[in-house]
Amino acid sequence: MAEATDWNKKLEALEARLWESADALRSNSKLDATDYCMPVMGLIFLRYAWGRFHRVTEELEQENILPNGRRIPIEKEDYLARGVLWLPETARYNRLAALPGDENLAEALNAAMIAIEAESTTLAGVLPKQYGELPPSVLADLVRTFNDPVLDTIGGDVFGRIYEYFLQKFAPTASATDGVFFTPKCLVKLIVEVVEPSGGKIFDPACGSGGMFIQSGDFIRSETGADNPNLTATFYGQEKVERNARLCLMNMAVHGLEAHIASGNEANSFYHDVFNLEGQCDTVMANPPFNVDAVSAELAEAAGRLPFGLPKVNKEKSVSNANYLWVSYFYAYLKNTGRAGFVMPSSATDSDAKGEDRAIREKLLATGHVDVIVSVGNNFFYTKSLPCTLWFFDKGKSKGRQDTVLFLDAREVYTPISRRINEWSAWQLRNLVAIIRLYRGRTDDYARLLADYRAAIGIDEATSFTQAKADAETALAKTRADAEADLATRKGKEKREAKEAWARREDEAKARLEAATQALWLTEKFGENTGAYRDIPGLCKAATRAEIVAKNHSFTPGVYVGVPETPPEDEAVFAERMAAIHTELATLSSQAEGLMKTILSNAESLAKENERQ
Predict the structure, then answer these.
(1) Fewer C-beta within 10 Å: the chain N or C terminus?
(2) Looking at per-residue confidence, does 579 or 104 come out higher?
């Protein structure tokens, strides 16, 4: 939790500085607001690329020292082998940020972009080169703003999130056009961890800024130890919006990844399979536009990839909701051992209960390849509060699981990051992955997770997680009390420094408590030693196909998992509270009865007094 909160605090602070600089663009240039994104993202691209390049340079300098003290020269190939974009001298951000005031910064930036494109065929014609259109003073401020060490520490798909931040600020309607939303990092990470892309053909037919690819590259690196995922995986993407496709290529380049990305009308996935990937993909992952309407039924049918037929067609001969076109595409692209993971609106799990959507669910279920459905709560999306579901297909499912689908209701699993944003902490995400892997029979992964928990908390196997949580709560309370007592005796600079030190200690204590809390949440359900999957009311259920048929082929997790069991101690508390409530009601009733008698008596006395008068 501390790590996630720190990540978001850094990013939110950076976003605020970006907006301040961008606001100057709006006030001091003639560019249309929608044109700001690419030159600004070009600066972020340069800065992020430089950060990765600089870190690897330092690593290579240490590794290339021979025993006799001589240094082996660092070559361009050394960077490429580590999956890092090679930057010519003229394109290195430290040089650009240090240019004297009398040099033309716009020309230098344009030249930097041209130099990078000359070194990378995948970036040819992609990078922005209109820096001469920006006011020189505003451009200089932007370069200084992005020369920020925070960009070196955030990691993940910060590129995509900052991009949507600009869309939100400058063109609020653009980010929601056709139901398009930036996919939060934690959702992408869960999809990747469940699908487990190890190589082969990886496809995203609605690739946006490339977040699925970035996380897949990270997964391949962590699982295989390979520096360069391009050696084992080939990335393919389709993106109708050309600006998004350019952004995707820039995003992948700074992460050392190469991709085949098609854009424009010919990359509209409803009507085109640009790379002829039907039946060819090892993994398919996507967050497609939700609830798209007016898709030509005739053109969609002609384009194929519809193993379960068309969804409902209206009188205008259009598919009025394209969610199930996407569902069919994701299945159709998979090879016979492939896996898919994708985002759908929550409404799609039981839509059109008597029509074509239900019929498609029926056919899907009959394949035995529907693997997992996960419900996600509100406020995970950066600009929208809508809930969603994550769907997973596995054409290589073991025979023992072909008759079941795991339904996981994670709507109550979240960490508030701000008033409007929730996410899964790192531990919460690992818990959800652990449940799915237990369902798949992966008990070794569960044991490794428990070992990681113990290491993070600082306990051995003899200490229960119940005790660990209680100890962590005590330690946090003591840290706060000690801090309050200590700071009361200090003043001025000494107090400020001590306050920072105590804040770090409190963060460490919070992190241990978070780990203990999440470990207890998991182990209370699946065991503290050797884990084994079991259905947990209110959380997860491995439903049989017969059970799903009986529920009219609904794919809504809540239909199957039910409500959580009430712990016995809660029942006792409830009974005690009810007894107290009944006692209080009896007392109030008695008091009301007495009050009513008094009122009636007073009314009678008043009436008699009036009669005498």
Answers:
(1) C
(2) 104
Nearest CA among 603, 424, 398 for reference residue 521: 424
pLDDT bin (cut points 50, 70, 90) of residue 44 is confident
CATH class of 2-155: mainly alpha
Q: 281-286 and 200-204: which strand pairing? A: parallel
The whole-number pLDDT of residue 414 equals: 94
DSSP codes joined into one string, 85-129 = ----GGG-HHHHHT--TTS-HHHHHHHHHHHHHHH-GGGTTTS--
CA 224-227-231 angle, 5° bins: 80
CATH topology of domain 169-441: Rossmann fold (3.40.50)
Q: How far is residue 543's CA from residue 250's CA, in Å, rounded to a whole number?
A: 43
pLDDT band at 168 (very low <50, low <70, confident <90, very high): low
In this model, does residue 103 exceed pLDDT 80?
Answer: yes
Query: Who's near 174: CB < 8 A, 6+ residues apart?
Result: 34, 167
The pLDDT of 47-60, averaged and rounded, is 88
Residue 123 scores a pLDDT above 70: yes
Q: Where are the alpha helices (DSSP H) in 209-355?
A: 211-224, 242-254, 297-303, 323-333
What is the average pLDDT value for the chain, to the nearest integer?
86
Model's pTM, two decimal places? 0.84
Nearest residue to 332 via CA among 267, 280, 271: 280
Q: Taking a C-beta distance cutoff of 8 angstroms, is the pair 345, 323 a contact?
A: yes
The Cα–Cα gap between 428 and 414 comes to 7
- 8 Å CB contact between 418 and 8: yes
3-state helix, strand, coil in the chain (%, to 5): 55, 10, 30
pLDDT of residue 389: 96
Instruction: State how far the Cα of 157 lies from the Cα of 44, in Å rounded to an integer.
Output: 12
Q: Which of 389, 379, 234, 381 is nearest to 323 (CA)?
A: 389
Is the pLDDT assigned to residue 355 strictly greater than 60? yes
Residue 50: CB partners within 8 Å, gap ≥ 6? Answer: 87, 92, 93, 94
Question: What is the three-class DSSP state of 536?
Answer: strand
